[in-house]
Amino acid sequence: MKGLFITGTDTDVGKTHVACAIVVALNKQGLRTSVMKPVASGCVQTSDGLRNKDALKLMSVASVKQTYEQVNPYAFEPAIAPHLAAQQIGIDIQLDEIEKQYFKTAINADVCVVEGVGGWMVPLNDEETMADLNVRLQLPIILVVGMKLGCINHALLTIEQIEREALPILGWVANHVDPNMHQAQENIQALEQRIPYPLLGVIPNKKNTSAEDVSLCLQIPAL
Q1: Catalytic member of 2, 15, 28, 37
Q2: What are the beta bridge partners of residue 142?
Q3: Which residues make Cβ contacts (< 8 Å) with residue 81, sequence separation at least 6?
């Protein structure tokens, strides 16, 4: 039973875009894949309950059938920081519950791909962050770097914090979220010089790109 954790340098850097492509790439390796988006804000009320578009996208590419509650145990309607959304409805996000759901869904797959919320240090409750969840799960991490102004600083600080927790880093992905970024290639080269982990792929800025197409931009090592 193996897993991967997908984190990002910030919110809206394309974590789901990349995570779905990674799942497709793992499917091509002949692996059974399951997914998790443990915490999600900005969910929509449906006849089946709150649903998050990113969690649904992940479910659509996973090869193992899962219930929505297994994929996204904590779903919140307001598009705000998850610990604040949880406070609004009077609950605490419990890492024990997320960990339990992870092992329940991961046991039926060869690889479980877990996507975080926001960046590495997003609070989940009054005392714990996404980083604390990763310390519990001990999964190899792939960092999605949103290529935009400030990305070098964001990426290096995130890498430094992950290393401080002594967690394994599988590599990083450059995702071109800003089509007008000046000297984008030079920024990628600067990151390659400073990040001691492999660049697993460069994702171009194209609208309506499928997970299948994005998977062709990635080089995910055999797990």
Answers
A1: 37
A2: 6, 171
A3: 41, 118, 122, 123
Span 47-56, pLDDT tens digits: 999 999 999 9
pLDDT tier at 1, thresholds 50, 70, 90: low
**Residue range 152-210, pLDDT digits in tens:** 999 999 999 999 999 999 999 999 999 999 999 999 999 999 999 999 999 999 877 89
Residues 6+ apart with CB under 8 A from 207: none
Cα–Cα distance for residue pair 63/116, rounded to 1 Å: 20
Domain of 75?
2-215
The verdict on residue 170 lying in a domain is yes
Spatial distance between the Cα atoms of 32 and 39, rounded to a whole number of angstroms = 23
User: In Å, how far are 50, 117, 151, 194 from 187, measured between CA atoms?
Assistant: 39, 25, 8, 11
In a domain, 189, yes or no: yes
Helices 53-61 and 15-28: crossing angle in degrees, nearest 10, is 10
| Any domain includes 223 | no
How far is it, in rounded angstroms, from Cα 11 to Cα 198? 22
Q: In angstroms, rounded to a whole number, what is the distance separating the alpha carbons of residues 22 and 74?
A: 23
Token pair of 66, please?
Answer: 């899962």
Residue 221 has pLDDT above 90, yes or no: no
Amino acid 223: pLDDT: 74
**Domain count across the chain:** 1
104 catalytic residue (yes or no) = no
